[in-house]
Amino acid sequence: MNDDNAKKIWLSIQNAGDKLVGKLPPSKSHPKGRNPYAHVAICVKNKFSQSYKDIPDECFHEVLDYIDYLVENPS
Fold first, then answer.
1. How many CB atoms lie within 10 A of CB 48?
2. How far apart are CA 68 and CA 48, in angstroms?
């Protein structure tokens, strides 16, 4: 992904994390609470099988749509 798109994706991940603070369900693996920023980044990495920086530019809008989906469906 080019630098400009990667920066936009990172900003979207940060905004999504802001919106998910306190909304993720509890986890036994995270007794002090879950990190919503890490959650979004890991979900993107798992869905696209690579870091957001390595995803092709052609998938830019798909990544943004997926991040929006994560905000609407916290898990």
1. 16
2. 15
- In DSSP terms, 27 is beta-bridged to 30
pLDDT tens readout for residues 20-51: 999 999 988 888 889 999 999 999 999 999 99
Query: Which residues are within 8 A (CB) of 12 and not within 5 positions of it... i.e. 6 or more apart?
Result: 63, 64, 67
Cα separation, 5 vs 72, in Å, equals 22
Tokens of 27: 């986890």
Burial class of residue 14 in the structure, from the number of CB atoms within 10 Å of its CB (0-12 exposed, 13-18 middle, 19+ buried): middle
- SS3 percent helix, strand, coil of the chain, rounded to 5, is 65, 5, 30
The model's pTM is: 0.92
Measuring CA to CA, which residue among 73, 75, 48 is closest to residue 63?
48
Q: Which two tokens stand for residue 68?
A: 């929006």
